[in-house]
Design goal:
single chain, alpha+beta, Deoxyribonuclease I, Chain A, six-stranded mixed sheet, five-stranded mixed sheet, 13 strands, about 20% helix
């Protein structure tokens, strides 16, 4: 879901990798800020965002498998669900890509994160987690404009509705925590929007099937926050 602007943002394209040291975390990434963000002009290109439910990235073998699959695609930022890694950290991988993760409420379960392509690592201004189900990063895309990407991993239908409502409150906090020109909310919402109704403007025309109760919660949230 995108907020404010309908056009896809363009981003700087040069490889810029911060000197954190390959394969070493920063000792806890909550609120981590990158002070090496470039400010000069760089060539622009379309930004490729994706979201992926990994099932688990608990081991380094699984992480290597993910990077191998991504090497076959064009991507810039991938939001991750069910990372299942312990703790919270930001790591520069041997590939030069940046991995951020936060574990779920229960050890080795759930959790969200990001993997950022090595060409954009120095454009990451901040990475923050609001909860075990909501995290965001801010990316400098030009000297003037920034993009906020919010990653969500919603409770399944086995969880009560109050947990879902809490998650949406966390997303709202992520949206309003700091200003950005573009805001994208993505992830696994465990909701079915279905086809839009005739008077709906926030839902596109390519939905399929019938909307469920969690889908209605999502549609109402989009309306309140100006997402589409």
């Amino acid at each position: 879901m995108e907020r404010n602007k309908k056009t896809r943002p363009l981003v700087p394209g040069g490889p810029t990798i911060p000197g954190h040291g390959s394969g070493h975390g920063n000792g806890g990434a909550r609120g981590a800020k990158n002070h090496r963000v470039p400010t000069g002009y760089q060539p622009r290109r379309p930004l490729a965002l994706a979201t992926f439910n990994t099932r688990t990235l608990r081991t380094d073998v699984r992480l290597a498998e993910l990077e191998e699959e991504l090497s076959r695609l064009r991507w810039d930022i991938v939001g991750l669900c069910e990372v299942r890694r312990e703790g919270e950290d930001t790591i520069i991988l041997k590939s030069g890509n940046l991995l951020y993760f936060r574990e779920g409420d229960q050890q080795s379960q759930g959790g969200v994160g990001f993997i950022v392509h090595k060409s954009l690592v120095n454009n990451v201004v901040q990475i923050e987690s609001v909860s075990a189900r909501v995290a965001y990063l801010i990316l400098r895309i030009t000297k003037r404009y920034s993009l906020k990407v919010i990653q969500v991993y919603a409770p399944t239908t086995e969880h009560p509705d109050d947990e879902v409502e809490t998650m949406y409150e966390d997303i709202s906090r992520a949206i309003h925590s700091s200003r950005s020109h573009f805001t994208v909310v993505m992830g696994d919402f465990n909701a079915k929007l279905g086809r839009r109704s005739d008077n709906e403007l926030k839902v596109g025309q390519f939905g399929y099937g019938e909307r469920n109760a969690r889908g209605q919660l999502l549609a109402g949230f989009m309306e309140r926050e100006g997402l589409f």
